[in-house]
Amino acid sequence: MDNLVKNKNTVAIIPARGGSKRIPKKNIIEFFDKPLIAYTIEAAIGANCFDKVMVSTDCEEIADISVSYGAEVPFLREDKTDDFSTVSEATIYTLNRLQKEKGENYDTVFQLMANCPIRDSNNILEFGEYFSKNDLNFLISSFAFGWMNPWWAFKITKNNTYIRLFEDEAAQRSQDLDKLYCPTGAIWVAKTEELIKQGSFYGDGHRFFPLDWKSAIDIDDYEDLEMAKAVFILKNKMI
What we know:
Layout: H1 2-7, E1 10-15, E2 30-31, E3 34-35, H2 36-47, E4 52-56, H3 60-68, H4 87-102, E5 108-111, H5 121-133, E6 138-144, E7 154-156, E8 162-164, H6 167-170, E9 181-191, H7 192-198, E10 207-210, H8 222-235
Parallel strand pairs: 1-4, 1-5, 6-10
Antiparallel strand pairs: 2-3, 5-9, 6-9, 7-8
Helix pairs in contact: 2-5
């Protein structure tokens, strides 16, 4: 990631609103003796490739915890905190406030979700190197489906019948089917000017970069949380 560090001003923004619904106070729940957000802050600081590592939050408690782990919280987010605003909008709001209130402009922005505790500094550096070498405008993390085979997916109706989503592929052997990938919030990066202009990390020409499924774990509900705990135990050889 040398070119990105030497030639461009780069900011890491960690969006972390306080109003999570599926897991209350999700971003700061305890995860192996630390608040969940601490793992993302430490991964960003450990990558040693950002001019600023900041948390964008509307919550004083999240702000205080974030600062204690080394992140900057120059202001509380006063907009884009509801259940309907996209995370891209929250990051753009933060970039605009940094420019207007602090006079800070960044060429590149990394968006690192607070609910991805397995993603580490090496993942961030690898991701940034790919983004820089390929001169991309947008890059979004993803992972390949493994033991779950989405080609065989079906819906169960109210009458307990089913509807195949991929009728032709459902009849094929799994080894004969193409791999499918899923986006994850672990690491998103964009050229700041393009992000503000297009309003989304899914702007024109966006690409996906596959992470190992373990690094890509994105905690949204309690089942995800249990999966993340199991992976963390295995990764850190705690059994």
